[in-house]
Amino acid sequence: MDADEDVAPAVRSILDAARQRDSPAADRVSVNPRSLDDAVAAADADGRTPVIAEVKPTSPTTEGTRTDDPVELARAMVDGGAAALSVLTEPEHFGGSPEYLERVREAVDVPVLRKDFLLREAQLDAVAADVVLLIARFVGDDLADLLAAARDRGFQVLVEVHTREELERAVDAGANFVGVNNRDLAKLEVDLATFEDVAAHARDRTDATLIAESGVSTPDDVRRMRRAGADALLIGSAIMDYDTDERSSSSPRSASPREDDGADPAATVRENTERLTTAESQRGDNE
C-alpha cells in the first residue's frame, strides 16, 4: 500500500517530514494511562457531550498560528467541560512539540492524546501520553504491530480511519478506539457524511468506541454526529479559532483565528468548549 498515493501535497509534505524525523534517543516509555473510556462515560453521566478538545497552534488547513500558552488553553478546555485533550506534537506543520504535551499532561487530570504522524515503533518513545494516534492509511500493514507495541508501553490507541475498508483493517487489528476522519486527505475537503457512512457499517462489526474527527464546528454538527453513533468527538479548530458565532457546517467560514479584539484567549476557548460540550442539552434549530 502506497500511503502517499492520491494524498494532497500538504499531507505528502507532512509524511515526508515524519519519515525524516529522527527517532528520539530516549528510554522506552512506560505509561500508566488515564482511562479514555472512563472519561467518555463520566461526561455522558454528567450530561455533557464527550469532547476531546485539541490544542492545535496551527495546521495546513488554517491560516495563522496561535502563540498562547498551551497549558492555559488546556485548562480552559477542561473548565469548559472537555472529557479529554488532544495535543499536537508534530513540529513542522502543526507547531506542536512533545514538551507541550508534557506540560499539558502535568497540568490537567483528564486523558491526553498525542496527535502526530507516527510511522515506526521508536517514535512512540518521544513522550508519555495516555493515548496515541495511529493513522491506518499511513502505517499500512504495520498497523497491528504498532498497535501492539503501543499497548505494550501502556498506551491506549486511537486508530484513525476514513473508509469502510480502513475500518475493517482497524477491527482486524483489534482497535478499541476508532476515529473516523471526515476530512478527505486527497482533497482536504470535509464531509460529515463520512462518519455517518463508516459508523453505520461499524455497528455490525465492532463495539469499539467511535470518535468523530474533523469538521465539527457547531452544536448542530455535534448533535448530527451523536445521532450517527459517535461516542465522542475530537474538535480542534472550532475551539481554537476563538470564533464563537453560531455557524452551520455548510456555510462559508474562515479557518483563521480572529484578530485580537481584546478578548481573553483562555476565556474564549472555555466558552467555545462549553458551547460544544453542552450541545445536546440545547434545542437545535432544525430539530
Structural features, described:
This protein has 287 residues and is α/β, with parallel strands linked by helices. The protein has one domain (9-244, 259-279): TIM Barrel (Alpha-Beta Barrel). Helix content is 37%, strand content 15%. The protein contains twelve helices and ten strands. The chain has helices spanning 9-20, 36-45, 70-79, 91-94, 98-107, 136-139, 143-152, 164-173, 193-202, 219-227, 237-240, 265-277, and strands at residues 51-55, 84-88, 112-115, 131-135, 156-161, 177-181, 183-184, 189-190, 209-213, 232-235. The strands form two sheets. The chain has an eight-stranded parallel β-barrel, surrounded by eight helices. Strands 7-8 form a two-stranded antiparallel sheet. Strand 9, helix 10 and strand 10 (232-235) form a beta-alpha-beta unit. The longest helix has 13 residues, at 265-277. The chain is globular. It starts with 8 loop residues before the first helix and ends in a 10-residue tail after the last helix.
How would you briefly describe this protein structure?
The chain has 287 residues and is an alpha/beta fold.
Secondary-structure blueprint:
Layout (H helix, E strand, L loop, with lengths): L8 H12 L15 H10 L5 E5 L14 H10 L4 E5 L2 H4 L3 H10 L4 E4 L15 E5 H4 L3 H10 L3 E6 L2 H10 L3 E5 L1 E2 L4 E2 L2 H10 L6 E5 L5 H9 L4 E4 L1 H4 L24 H13 L10
Helix pairs in contact: 3-5, 3-12, 7-8
Catalytic activity: 1-(2-carboxyphenylamino)-1-deoxy-D-ribulose 5-phosphate + H(+) = (1S,2R)-1-C-(indol-3-yl)glycerol 3-phosphate + CO2 + H2O
EC number: 4.1.1.48
InterPro entries: Aldolase_TIM, Indglycph_syn_Halo_TrpC, Indole-3-glycerol_P_synth, Indole-3-glycerol_P_synth_dom, Indole-3-GlycerolPSynthase_CS, RibuloseP-bd_barrel
